[in-house]
Automatic annotation (TrEMBL):
Region Disordered, annotated ranges: 1-107
Organism the protein comes from: Streptomyces himalayensis subsp. aureolus
Transmembrane annotation, as ranges: 140-158, 194-219, 239-266, 272-293, 323-356, 376-404
Record field: compositional bias (Gly residues): 86-104
Compositionally biased region (Basic and acidic residues): 39-50
Full protein name: DUF7847 domain-containing protein
Keyword Membrane: yes
Keywords carried by this UniProt record: Membrane, Transmembrane, Transmembrane helix
Residue stretches of biased makeup (Polar residues): 60-72
Length: 436
């Protein structure tokens, strides 16, 4: 593998082709295979066989290394050992460390950026997403704010010029005819669908750019908005395709699940058809959820590994295999946190918009929507912009860090990331480099 940020999928050759045992010393003790001097039988060192190391190698960590003056006869296997201290195996007197007397546990993992380069816990993934936003706030919040503003401007314009008050009012009119109700529901669904589509497009752009920022933050490197755009732009169309493919797949599964009930209801069995449609929708929803989590790491695989849509879905399925519940739990927790943060910001702005609109706060509480004028749309839009600016980095960051965590667990990506970050002791081709 190379020394650049190693996001490529596994399969490339190890660095410099070094064998795992290449760094082990091969020199032997001079004269080891020669004739044995009878006088040597009286020395303690003559009791060591070929397969055993010299006596000095069995010292505790921190004592004399290979090549230094060997211990005296009293420290060999046959010599008299000093009494152990009250600490048992680790509690001998000073200078006699015993078995593991100086062992202090494994060294801490390297942390060149926002996460330590080792398998992560749930809290570390969430903290890494927040740390990325805090450490690289200019780029992260700049991208999120720009995307949120553009998206909200389009949404406000659509709401102002496409939302038909007369048709939606029929939904609250008890004397409305069936045709009026159907027309109102159709208009509402159409308007909501267009608004959701615009919001989804903005989310995709923010996710693509923030994926690049988060991946660099893991290495401790800053990236400008221009650099993030240059890196993400070639893959954005594929990211759009991936997102819409997964959306269509979920809708198709739900449609297939509800189709039998709809057909039975159309044939005259309204109650049985409705019950079957509900059961089918629930079963299809479970299948769709399982697939969405299975492919939830496809977007970072597509953006960072520069994969195609199909290959990125395969990579996600491989990384999630055996860890579905863990990935689902972390994604669900991140979604709950993001929604709570957004609600804390959006709801007060919605009440303020309702209070400033023509109907006042009473009309807003009665109908759930205010007078859809410029005041209501602008004030509520400001709340949406602030909420999106804070939630985009959380959801995108958690997904990227979860992808990195799964690759660390399955593919030892931490070694490649440490090399790419220039961590001391991980240089490519260095003797004894882990994983070389």
């Amino acid at each position: 593998m190379n020394d650049t940020p190693g996001w490529a999928s596994p399969g490339s050759a190890p660095s410099d082709g070094q064998e795992p045992d290449a760094s082990r010393p091969t020199d032997t003790t001079p004269g080891q295979d020669g004739p044995v001097d009878p006088a040597d039988d009286k020395r303690p060192s003559s009791k060591w066989s070929k397969e055993q190391p010299p006596p000095g190698q069995w010292s505790a960590p921190g004592q004399q290394a290979r090549g230094q003056t060997p211990p005296t006869a009293g420290t060999g296997w046959g010599g008299q050992q000093p009494p152990r201290g009250p600490g048992g195996y680790g509690g001998g007197p000073a200078g006699h460390g015993g078995w593991g007397g100086n062992w202090g546990g494994p060294p801490p993992a390297a942390k060149p950026g926002v996460i330590p380069l080792r398998p992560l816990g749930v809290g570390e993934i969430l903290d890494g997403a927040v740390s990325t936003m805090r450490t690289h706030w200019r780029t992260v919040l700049g991208i999120s704010l720009a995307v949120a503003v553009v998206t909200e401007i389009v949404v406000v314009l659509l709401q102002k010029f496409t939302l038909d008050d007369s048709s939606t009012a029929a939904l609250e009119d008890p004397s409305a005819t069936v045709d009026e109700l159907m027309r109102a529901m159709s208009d509402t669904l159409l308007n909501s669908g267009v608004i959701l589509l615009i919001s989804l497009l903005g989310t995709i752009v923010a996710t693509g750019l923030l994926t690049t920022v988060t991946s660099r933050a893991v290495l401790g490197r800053s990236v400008t908005t221009r650099e993030a755009w240059s890196d993400a732009r070639p893959q954005l169309l594929k990211l759009f395709g991936l997102t819409f493919l997964l959306l269509l797949l979920a809708l198709a599964i739900v449609g297939v699940g509800t189709l039998p009930g709809i057909l039975i209801a159309a044939a005259g069995g309204a109650e049985a058809g409705a019950a079957l449609a509900v059961l089918g929708a629930l079963a299809a929803g479970v299948v769709a959820l399982w697939l969405m989590i299975r492919f939830s790491l496809a977007s970072p695989a597509l953006m960072l590994e520069k994969q195609s849509i199909v290959k990125s879905m395969g990579r996600s399925a491989k990384l999630v295999r055996g860890a579905w519940w863990r990935v689902f739990g972390i994604q669900l927790l991140a979604a709950i946190i993001a929604n709570i943060v957004a609600s804390i910001i959006v709801i007060p702005f919605a009440f303020l918009a309702g209070a400033l609109s023509g109907g006042g706060i009473t009309g807003f509480l009665d109908s759930g929507v205010g007078d859809v004028g410029w005041t209501f749309l602008i004030v509520s839009g400001i709340g949406s912009v602030i909420g999106s600016t804070l939630t985009f980095p959380i959801t995108a960051g958690v997904t990227v860090l979860l992808y990195i965590d799964q690759r660390i667990r399955r593919e030892a990506l931490d070694l490649e990331l440490a090399r790419a970050a220039g961590v001391q002791g991980y240089a490519s081709g260095a003797p004894g480099t882990p994983g070389s």
